[in-house]
Amino acid sequence: MDVPSISIMVDSTPDISKKEMYSIIVRYTRNFEIEERLFAFGEMSSKVGADIVEFILAFFKRYGISTTKIISQSYD
């Protein structure tokens, strides 16, 4: 991802079977335009903070996005 910085938003909601589904949304600017993309959506059986961090970091590693580009974070 060739942008200088990114903002991430992580949210979760239970599905109909009460499994926690997490989404990672990334916001960035490109050519002076704000872009927002849903980058990941997945199930997690745990609500433990360390497991959530592992889910987020695995996403960044999988897509080759440097975590040093993160300038803001939002969680719900």
TrEMBL record:
Domain of life: Eukaryota
PANTHER family xref list: PTHR45749, ZINC FINGER MYM-TYPE PROTEIN 1-LIKE-RELATED
Protein name: DUF4371 domain-containing protein
Record organism: Rotaria magnacalcarata
